[in-house]
UniProtKB/TrEMBL annotation, chain A:
Source organism superkingdom: Bacteria
Domain ChsH2 rubredoxin-like zinc ribbon: from-to ranges: 21-56
PANTHER family from the UniProt entry: BLR3430 PROTEIN
The ChsH2 C-terminal OB-fold domain, residue ranges: 60-120
Protein name stated in the entry: OB-fold protein
From TrEMBL, chain B:
Transmembrane segments: none
Keyword Transferase: yes
Name of this protein: Acetyl-CoA acetyltransferase
Upper classification of the organism: Bacteria, Bacillati, Actinomycetota, Actinomycetes, Pseudonocardiales
Domain Thiolase C-terminal: 272-391
Length: 139, 394
């Protein structure tokens, strides 16, 4: 694997998710919001699962996350990452969940509920996407 | 809406497989043809009588290719079910519905691949992952961060289950040890005569923490086929019918393939609950009345979660249920008596259906001493799910 290019599939950009990746490129974390009932949703979808409205806008997330679950990946390895690779599932205070790689924190420091910041960094194929890091300041 | 319309009307009359290996040395198409012929031979049904196929969408050998190669003259029913091993039991439901409505009379289910010597599911995304479509769009939210394989995607659930209920890696390892014990007594199994201990499990290398190598099923080459006919017809055939008492599919709320992470409790499998309630309604059975089970075991934690979702034990209690010996051959619910996909081979769950048939016929290499009148066979999770209940005739 190490002599090959990454196996990470290129992003599948559609009319339903283009706004989210465009925001990420600008370094802000967008959350889709139904303009009728104000329910937030992620991952994006064309329709509100609560009121079925197709009308939506976005809000910007606080990017202050709490760790819900995580894994430390040892095998198989892909050229796009350094291993062991830590990947987390986090709760955002807005009430949605997000998956991203965790950088700069040793696996034995990880504990459910711990605070993490959502930052942005270049990932496979040059895509700028969320990354989870130690909070910069006490909050 | 009773859903009992086809309960008991159709049966599995034949099973047939190739050997399960790591390098079959022949084409997937040939494997498919070989296992279909073996299943028809087992049933005592001639090739020209086949008029239907029900397959996985992931099956690389189309029904028309197998029909052409075998010289099957006409097909009146052919359908495909998505979601890989999650859908493993759904082609049997398709077949049962086709047979019970008279749309077809002899429906064959098969799954054949070189999943070890060809593309390995554990190596990374499959070829179709690279085709830009809404079907694959879910990968945007997991793959770019390094969750590329099923083990990696299920690890979140396993860790949360451990945290919430105090389960340990060794608790997951009980499933591996049991499966390998059963496989050790099954000559078809890749791990025939190669049992393991809990120490072997605990010293196996980490794949996606908390999942170790011995929490992961095998990757296999091989083919498995099943022949479904009416129960009435099956009574006149070579083998005792394995009657399809119930067959169901299920999708739960906010379902995403392998990554339904927005659910409040990621360690639960609501799609399994959707299937379970249909099975009990169709069959008239309760969980405690099942005599044996073949639970989909791509990864050991999902066996614990399924035991709970199907109601064999309480939530969080699966580790104790297993430790108490209930899944042993002489236990209350003998499980994966063929060795499972951890021990026998990984034919995407379809080899487990064949073991369900053997248990009903009384012919498992680990046949329980007690009478076996009903067996639950399940597909995979955490993806859209399917399962069947097989029973003796009468």
């Amino acid at each position: 694997m190490s002599h090959q290019s990454t196996a990470v599939p290129p992003l599948i950009i559609t009319e339903d998710n283009r706004f989210w990746f465009a925001a990420a490129e600008q370094g802000w974390l967008a959350i889709q919001r139904c303009t009728r009932c104000h329910t937030l949703r992620h991952p994006p979808a064309p329709c509100c699962a609560r009121c079925q409205s197709f009308e939506w806008d976005t809000i910007e997330s606080s990017r202050r996350a709490n760790l819900c679950s995580y894994t430390v990946i040892h095998h198989p390895r892909d050229t796009a990452f350094d291993y062991p690779l830590v990947v987390g599932l986090v709760d955002l205070p807005e009430g949605i969940r997000l998956v991203a790689d965790i950088v700069g924190i040793e696996p034995d420091e990880l504990v459910a509920g711990m605070e993490l910041d959502v930052t942005f960094a270049e990932h496979a194929h040059g895509a700028v996407l969320p990354r989870l890091t130690r909070p910069e300041v006490w909050r | 809406m009773s859903g009992r319309g086809f309960s008991g009307v159709a049966a599995i009359a034949g099973i047939g497989a190739t050997e399960f290996s790591k390098d079959s040395g022949r084409s997937e198409w040939q494997l498919a043809c070989e296992c279909v012929l073996a299943a028809l031979e087992d049933a005592g049904i001639g090739v020209p009588e086949v008029d239907g196929f029900a397959l996985f969408t992931m099956e690389n050998n189309p029904e028309i290719a197998v029909a052409r190669a075998l010289g099957i003259p006409e097909l009146t029913f052919f359908s495909r079910i998505p979601h890989g091993g999650g859908g493993a039991c759904a082609p049997v439901q398709q077949a049962a519905m086709a047979v019970s409505t008279g749309i077809a009379e002899v429906v064959v289910v098969y799954r054949a691949f070189n999943e070890r010597s060809g593309h390995r599911f554990g190596a990374g995304p499959p070829k179709f992952a690279y085709s830009p479509s809404t079907d694959q769009e879910y990968r945007n939210w997991i793959n770019p961060y390094g969750l590329l394989t099923p083990a990696q995607q299920e690890a979140f659930l396993a860790r949360e289950y451990m945290r919430k209920y105090g389960a340990t890696s060794a608790d997951f390892g009980q499933v591996s040890v049991l499966s390998r014990k059963h496989a050790a007594n099954n000559p078809r199994a890749w791990y025939y005569q190669r049992p393991i201990t809990i120490a072997d499990h605990q010293s196996s290398r980490m794949i996606a923490d908390p999942l170790r190598l011995l929490d992961c099923c095998q990757e296999s080459d091989g083919g498995q086929a099943l022949v479904v006919v009416s129960t009435e017809r099956a009574r006149d055939l070579r083998r005792p019918p394995a009657v399809i008492r119930a067959a169901a599919q299920g999708v739960g709320p906010q379902q995403i393939s392998m990554s339904s992470y927005s659910r409040s409790e990621i360690e639960r499998l609501p799609e399994v609950g959707v299937v379970a309630k249909q099975l009990w309604r169709q069959s008239g059975l309760r969980p405690a009345e099942l005599d044996a089970a073949v639970l989909y075991d791509a990864f050991t934690p999902m066996v614990l979660l399924q035991l709970e979702e199907y109601g064999f034990c309480g939530v969080g209690e699966a580790k104790d249920f297993i430790a108490d010996g209930h899944l042993e051959v002489d236990g209350r619910l003998p499980m994966n008596t063929h060795g499972g996909q951890l021990g026998e081979g990984y034919i995407h769950g379809v080899n487990g259906i064949a073991e369900g048939v053997r248990l009903i016929r009384g012919g498992s290499t680990n046949q329980p001493a007690k009478r076996v009148d009903s067996v639950l066979v399940t597909g995979g999770s955490p993806v859209p799910h399917s399962a069947i209940v097989l029973g003796t005739d009468g």
